[in-house]
Automatic annotation (TrEMBL):
It comes from Streptomyces murinus. One of its GO terms (cellular component) is plasma membrane. Signal peptide: none annotated. Keywords: Cell membrane, Membrane, Transmembrane, Transmembrane helix. This is Membrane protein DedA with SNARE-associated domain. The chain crosses the membrane at residues 12-28, 35-53, 65-87, 150-172, 178-201. Pfam families: VTT_dom (PF09335). The keyword Cytoplasm does not apply. It is a multi-pass membrane protein. The keyword Membrane applies. It is found in: Cell membrane.
Length: 207
């Protein structure tokens, strides 16, 4: 089964695919960035385990865990920053679009209150919630929140999400073997974290 999973994430191209997917899913939340990160983590665990048993060395084609985490986190922050700047310059049209959406208006109010109090837990939670990253990044820009208030929390959110996703793939493969079952369990844990994050965000009082 390692051949099946590993073939999807072997080779240096996986870094470019993961980076591009994470960067763009702030605009297209349907992109499977989490699936790609978990699959790469699974391949890293399977490849390093097989190599250690055979030769004691990790082959060149096996993804590096630290590189995966850092690239996914950096792409997440860069995507947030691009969305933030676009929303900042969006003008009255974007303001009217947000005003027409109760969900976006509420999210903007909550985010503003969290950042004004010096806390950005909402930004971190939103990174795990479905489409939450997009809502928070665009709302922060549209509300003209200061970059120094938003970006540090975006960095923490991106690093937390990347480390969690890679760890799910890696330890899932270590504990359950490099099988599709391990990948499925890891994805269920990622989606479970997203559902929990969405629930906690809805319980946050509005500013």
């Amino acid at each position: 089964m390692f051949e099946s999973v590993g073939s999807l994430a072997a080779g240096p191209w996986i870094y470019a695919v993961v980076t591009l997917s994470v960067l763009l899913d702030v605009f297209l939340p349907v992109l499977p960035s989490g699936v790609l990160v978990i699959t790469a983590g699974t391949a890293a665990a399977a490849g390093s385990g097989a190599a250690s048993a055979a030769t004691g060395r990790v082959p060149h084609g096996v993804p590096d865990l630290l590189a995966l985490v850092l690239l996914a986190a950096a792409a997440s922050v860069l995507g947030d920053l691009v969305a933030y700047r676009l929303a900042w310059r969006g003008g009255e049209r974007l303001d009217r679009a947000i005003a027409r959406s109760r969900r976006l208006t509420t999210a903007q109010e909550r985010l503003g209150g969290a950042l004004a109090r010096g806390g950005g837990a909402l930004v971190v939670l939103a990174r795990f919630a479905p489409a939450g990253r997009s809502v928070v990044s665009f709302c922060a820009g549209a509300a003209h929140r200061r970059a120094r208030d938003f970006l540090p929390w975006s960095a923490l959110a991106g690093l937390s999400w990347a480390a969690y996703s890679v760890a799910l793939g890696y330890f899932g493969a270590r504990w359950l073997g490099a099988t599709w079952l391990a990948t499925g369990v890891s994805l269920a844990a990622l989606f479970g974290a997203g559902a929990a994050a969405g629930f906690l965000m809805r319980r946050q009082p509005a500013s």
